[in-house]
Amino acid sequence: MFTGIVEELGEVTAVETLDDACRFRLRGPVVTEGARHGDSIAVNGVCLTVVDHEGDEFTADVMAETLNRSSLGVLAVGSRVNLERPTAVGARLGGHIVQGHVDGTGEIIERKPSEHWEIVKISLPAGLSRYVVEKGSITVDGISLTVVDAGPDFFTVSLIPTTLALTTLGLKQPGDPVNLEVDVIAKYVERLLGTQGGTK
Questions:
Q1: Residue burial 41-59, b: 16+ Cβ < 10 Å; e: rest
Q2: Would you say the C-alpha torsion 189, 190, 193, 195 has a positive or negative sign?
Q3: Is the dihedral of CA 68, 70, 74, 78 positive or negative?
Q4: What is the pLDDT of residues 80-129, one digit of tens each?
Q5: SS3 (DSSP) at 32
Q6: 3-class SS of residue 15
Q7: Given CA atoms 185, 191, 195, 196 in this order, what sign does their dihedral have?
């Protein structure tokens, strides 16, 4: 489990394209400290498994299903990525419960800078809008954010200078894809209410 608090801005150092998968090598001095084979690291909000680890770099395999459901397929050598290790039991939950299971991809629609923050508008895939509410939580490229405004096919978030400086959202421009994970609690509530409704 993750919390959506990005630990560092890493970099893709190698991409190997396989028949039905990709192998990425990524640099991240913070998240690789003490890393072992089989550990999980979230890359732009996608939970990946460490296959190999050497120095400040680690390798992870990404299967076709993940490439199809996320924006990892557009990564290239030099791409910057948000990195986070799983939260430890008993640690502070700084963001919200993040599984690292992407629900879909959105696209940056527009950015509106102001003196102390920036409003970013992001498209919302059909089927996900029912899970997104004003002042609720959403994960964008692995970043736990609060929804400012929620529309039928978009939402907005307000980014503070720290988020802009230390994550990929400070770099992405209109047209760029982002990974989205909605609040898992909303999905469980929907399932429970649906089950109750079907048994009445």
A1: bbbbbbbbebeebeebbbb
A2: negative
A3: negative
A4: 999 999 987 777 777 788 889 999 999 999 999 988 889 999 999 988 99
A5: coil
A6: strand
A7: positive
Q: Within 10 Å of residue 10's Cβ, how many Cβ atoms?
A: 27
Residue 31: closest CA among 52, 13, 58: 58
- The rounded Cα 176 to chain-centroid distance in angstroms is 14
For residue 180, give both structure tokens.
């989205």
Computed over every residue of the chain, the mean pLDDT equals 91
Q: Environment class of residue 181 by beta-carbon count within 10 Å: exposed (0-12), middle (13-18) or buried (19+)?
A: buried
pLDDT (tens digit, 9 = 90+) per residue, 20-64? 899 999 999 999 998 999 999 999 999 999 999 999 999 999 999
Q: Can you give the pTM of this predicted structure?
A: 0.90
Query: CA dist 83 to 117, 134, 135, 162, Å?
Result: 22, 26, 25, 15
2-to-81, 86, 99, 150 alpha-carbon distances in Å: 16, 5, 6, 24
